[in-house]
Amino acid sequence: MLDGKKILYSGMQATGTLTLGNYLGALKNWVNLTDEYECIYGVMDLHSLTLRQVPAEFRKNARSLYALYVAAGLDPEKNCIYYQSHVSGHAELSWILGCFTYMGELNRMTQFKDKAAKHADNINAGLYTYPVLMAADILLYQADVVPVGVDQKQHLEITRDIAQRFNAIYGDVFTIPEAYIGKAGAKIMSLQEPEKKMSKSDENPNATICLLDDKDTVIRKFKRAVTDSGSEIVYREDKPGISNLIDIYSCVTGKTRDEIEKEFDGKGYGDFKLAVGEAVAAELEPLQKRYQELMADKTYLDSMIKMNDEKAAYYSNKTLRKVQKKVGLTERIR
Fold this sequence. Notes:
The strands form 2 sheets. A 3-stranded parallel beta sheet has the order 1-2-3. A two-stranded parallel sheet has the order 4-5. By secondary structure, the chain is mainly alpha-helical. Strand 4, helix 8 and strand 5 form a beta-alpha-beta unit. Helix 3 crosses helix 7, helix 7 packs across helix 8 and helix 9 runs antiparallel to helix 12. It contains 13 helices and 5 strands. It folds into 2 domains: 206 residues, Rossmann fold (3-Layer(aba) Sandwich), CATH 3.40.50; 89 residues, Tyrosyl-Transfer RNA Synthetase (Orthogonal Bundle), CATH 1.10.240.
């Protein structure tokens, strides 16, 4: 708890731009949580190092992500939005927690297996201990709730296990985080392979709508979206392509699936794809305009980053000093 409100913690990796899936599945919903929770959001640049990054591009992407957080509606004066790498407590706590994590637990992590298979030429220790750093991210701020997707549930479970193990030895040091169960964010699928999630790392550029894609690009990608046999616009399990487009249209217009089916009754896939593309482009236009303004205003962005980095360091330091004392590390002479 902080100022009488529960703490909510989340973050996104600083690689590439964000996708429509990131926005509709998470970011858009985060905006409404400020009044209910004390929200802390990280630009998770340390996590991004498990893959080789081009330094100049990496720095640009991290700043771009910060600006996108704010452009999407997260107020940096009401939410703590900071750079993970600017708070050394993440790495320090991660090492300590690693000493309370078992190899067997890390061996069971399905995300490690998936990523190791995808990047067989770079299976590094950082990728293997990634869940420990994620546990440190969450526990450092005594988070009460963490919004998690299906692919992150295992990471929250190991975080809880580590925290409970530590608390059993040293007393109530960490808050045991719960999964945030609020309004479910939509799970947006690939436009080219609607059986898999939309991803910024997809090699097919037509599969993903990026938040900074211009109107023509958005409409073109939707026109090329894979659809199903038949021509009816109905939401059904055997029509993953059209069902995904209905979900996207529903998210940006607020219309229900039934209303969408009625609206496009008797119309073809071409009409529907165009309507979805135009609706998404209209949704992204104000976000893109605000993003350009923020990227042009270096002074404002720098001041928000500095203020929130300091706030995050203050919060995290309280936990870190407590942990260091509990495990018996010698206090610094102040």
